[in-house]
């Protein structure tokens, strides 16, 4: 998985997307890769899991092998026009940029292709071995991924069209790009994940690299009768709670099918600690 | 006409908002107040219990419960509903057929939140219920729900259209053709298609909705401002950040929340529990496993209690705590029981 150039990490809100993104960046850097961790929409979560207050639009070195940045819309638009659409010299770039800027501000459809352009552009730069993106929840991400196809329908020829086609090729190339879909073993996240997997199978917008089931409880390893025979008190109550939650999780993990399991981390205080602990897991996977 | 109370149950997705909104509705109805609960995406069994598992979003009279009604919001067709409602039929047809509209129709969260707000306002205006309880859509945090009417007015009356049409001439195409259109056409030549022109045409049509939509939007906004708002969270950082965001950036359109509810709390006493030193009839391995388990959950409980304490010290909003239930209630009595089990909860929800 870490051999791909671009990994998009997505999942329902609150399942630990930012933690998983940061943990992949840490794990990849530990193998000697040069990594860019990129925040896409709400970057505060990713910043916290990298031990930072905030992220800057300009990639900033935050640890050996790791740079971090956030996609800034105004800057992404300028870069998009300059680097990707390669607006010809002599074209009225400033007016064009103004027209687009106002449209992007108001028109979410245009914003999507520009926001997707940035991670794809960075992933093709030789300064990074891996770009890992804290992407929006899957429903929203799918519309970002669909943007190249949307543009394809709206515009039939020209620079934007060519660029959209290139984006599509990159996103669906399993050697270069992949989706990390994060979920937790509870009813709504699993139902939604299973639906998303069905949607992806029907509309292959991106190759699925891995499904990660986060916050999986360790096995209690004590028989129910033993727990039931314990005297009333916290030891019995914590064991009963654990056993019930474990059963519940087992049911939803079965419903999910094949997935990489990430452990539930108890009582950890900072997001950075969470990311560091989860990163050990990706190292084991390789 | 009698005054309808509105209760907004807001917060990040996955914290038990829907369950608490439903519980508030059951308790409210049981107290003899005719109550409608509007929900977006209930877990299947909860939806079944309320009788709204199927399709359609008309309020249904909940079986076995006098005074209780439930409705499911359909947020998928929201753009189309807004357009059909506020535009002249011909403009509405043109808008819905616009390729650009088709491309963005299902992916503008403010429109979903706004459509939900409009639907809520319709139910409130009908005067059919004493209390309307709204479970805010999971795709938008609480703050975005409250800000949605303003965002919609801004979209349609915003600076793009002012730029395209000239200030104070809403919907007038003539000026657009003289000023902006040549510019957009030039841009489209460079970009390679009628994309910008399509978008501009779309937004110009959209502008004709402005008067109707903005006056309805301010009514929805007024309703939200007068609503009782409770924010639901757990002690986890992600949902808590959403609550902090609401309180720190308290929008002008909203009242200060009546309460913050920490859902799914572990017993605080576990934090300081010491394991029994000796338990009869248990082998060493089992005892070690049980001991480790107590230590793990104790650390978790302590961490949660610290988080709640820090939060309560930083904000002056009343805080209620709801204990974790290993199996969430799936029937109406179970929902009522949830409120009975947490003494501060009824006060936090219903005042």
Report on the structure:
The complex is a heterodimer of chains A (286) and B (351). Chain A has 286 residues and is an alpha/beta fold. Helix content of chain A is 53%, strand content 15%. Chain A has helices spanning 17-30, 44-49, 73-84, 93-106, 108-123, 138-154, 159-171, 187-202, 224-228, 234-256, 271-285, and strands at residues 6-10, 35-39, 60-63, 66-70, 130-134, 177-183, 208-216, 260-263. Chain A has an 8-stranded mixed β-sheet, sandwiched between helices. Chain A is elongated, with a radius of gyration of 21 Å. The termini of chain A are close together. Chain B is of the alpha/beta class and 351 residues long. Chain B has a single domain (5-169, 208-271, 297-350), classed as Rossmann fold (3-Layer(aba) Sandwich). Helix content of chain B is 56%, strand content 12%. Chain B has an 8-stranded mixed β-sheet with strand order 3-4-2-5-1-6-7-8, sandwiched between helices. In chain B, strand 7 (259-265), helix 13 and strand 8 form a beta-alpha-beta unit. Chain B is elongated and about 85 Å long. The chains are: A alpha/beta (286), B alpha/beta (351). Chains A and B meet through helix 2, helix 4, helix 5, helix 6 and helix 7 of A and helix 5, helix 8, helix 9, helix 10 and helix 12 of B.
* SS-derived structural category of chain A: alpha/beta
Uncertain runs of chain A: none
Give the number of DSSP strands of chain B. Answer: 8
Strand content of chain B is: 5-15%
User: How large is the radius of gyration of chain B?
Assistant: 25 Å
- Number of E strands of chain A: 8
Low confidence ranges of chain B: 166-172
Shape of chain B: elongated
Largest sheet of chain A: 8 strands, mixed
Order of helices and strands of chain A: EHEHEEHHHEHHEHEHHEH
User: What count of helical segments of chain B does DSSP give?
Assistant: 15
Overall geometry of chain A = elongated
């Amino acid at each position: 998985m870490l051999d791909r150039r671009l990994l998009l990490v997505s999942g329902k809100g609150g399942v630990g997307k930012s933690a998983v993104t940061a943990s992949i960046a840490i794990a990849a850097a530990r193998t000697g890769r040069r990594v860019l961790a990129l925040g896409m929409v709400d970057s505060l979560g990713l910043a916290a899991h990298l031990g930072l207050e905030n992220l800057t639009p300009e990639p900033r070195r935050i640890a050996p092998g790791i740079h971090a940045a956030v996609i800034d819309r105004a800057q992404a638009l300028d870069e998009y026009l300059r680097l990707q659409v390669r607006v010809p010299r002599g074209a009225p770039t400033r007016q064009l940029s103004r027209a687009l800027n106002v449209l992007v501000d108001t028109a979410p459809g245009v914003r999507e292709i520009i926001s997707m352009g940035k991670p794809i552009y960075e992933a093709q730069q030789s300064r990074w071995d891996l770009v890992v993106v804290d992407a929006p929840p899957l429903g929203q991400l799918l519309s970002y991924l669909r943007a190249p196809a949307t543009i394809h329908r709206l515009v039939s020829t020209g620079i934007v069209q060519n660029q959209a086609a290139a984006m599509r090729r990159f996103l669906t190339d399993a050697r270069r790009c992949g989706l990390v879909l994060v979920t937790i073993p509870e009813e709504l996240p699993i139902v939604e994940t299973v639906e998303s997997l069905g949607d992806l199978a029907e509309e292959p917008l991106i190759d699925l690299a891995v499904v990660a089931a986060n916050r999986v409880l360790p096995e209690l390893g004590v028989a129910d009768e033993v727990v039931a025979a314990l005297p009333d008190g916290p030891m019995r109550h914590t064991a009963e709670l654990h056993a019930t939650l474990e059963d519940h999780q087992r049911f939803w993990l079965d419903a999910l099918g094949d997935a990489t399991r990430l452990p539930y981390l108890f009582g950890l205080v900072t997001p950075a600690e969470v990311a560091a602990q989860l990163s050990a897991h990706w190292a084991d996977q390789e | 006409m009698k005054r309808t109370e509105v209760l907004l149950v807001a917060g990040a997705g996955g914290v038990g908002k829907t369950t608490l909104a439903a519980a508030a509705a059951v308790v409210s109805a049981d107290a003899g107040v005719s109550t409608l609960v509007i929900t977006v995406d209930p877990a299947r069994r909860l939806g079944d219990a309320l009788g709204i598992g199927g399709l359609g979003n008309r309020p249904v009279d909940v079986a076995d419960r006098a005074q209780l009604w439930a409705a499911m919001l359909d947020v998928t067709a929201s753009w189309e509903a807004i357009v059909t409602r506020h535009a002249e039929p011909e403009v509405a047809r043109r808008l819905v057929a616009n390729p650009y509209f088709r491309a963005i129709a299902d992916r503008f969260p403010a429109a979903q939140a706004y459509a939900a707000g409009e639907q809520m306002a319709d139910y409130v205006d009908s005067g059919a219920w004493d209390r309307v309880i709204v479970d805010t859509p999971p795709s938008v945090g609480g703050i975005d729900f409250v800000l949605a009417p303003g965002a919609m007015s801004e979209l349609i009356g915003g600076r793009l259209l002012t730029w395209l049409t000239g200030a104070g001439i809403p919907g007038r195409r003539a000026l657009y053709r003289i000023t902006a259109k040549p510019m957009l056409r030039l841009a489209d030549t460079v970009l390679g298609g009628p994309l910008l022109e399509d978008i501009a045409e779309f937004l110009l049509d959209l502008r004709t909705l402005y008067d109707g939509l903005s006056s309805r939007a301010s009514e929805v906004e007024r309703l939200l401002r007068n609503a009782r708002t409770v924010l639901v969270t757990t002690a986890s950082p992600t949902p808590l950040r959403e609550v902090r965001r609401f309180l720190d950036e308290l929008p002008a359109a909203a009242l200060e929340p009546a309460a913050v509810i920490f859902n799914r709390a572990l017993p605080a006493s576990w934090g300081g529990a010491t394991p029994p030193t000796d338990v009869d009839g248990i082998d060493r391995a089992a005892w070690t496993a049980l001991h480790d388990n107590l230590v793990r959950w104790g650390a978790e409980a302590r961490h949660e209690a610290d988080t709640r304490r820090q939060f309560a010290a930083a904000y002056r909003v009343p805080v209620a705590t709801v204990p974790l239930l290993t199996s969430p209630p799936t029937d109406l009595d179970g929902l009522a029981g949830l409120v009975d089990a947490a003494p501060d909860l009824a006060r936090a929800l219903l005042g």
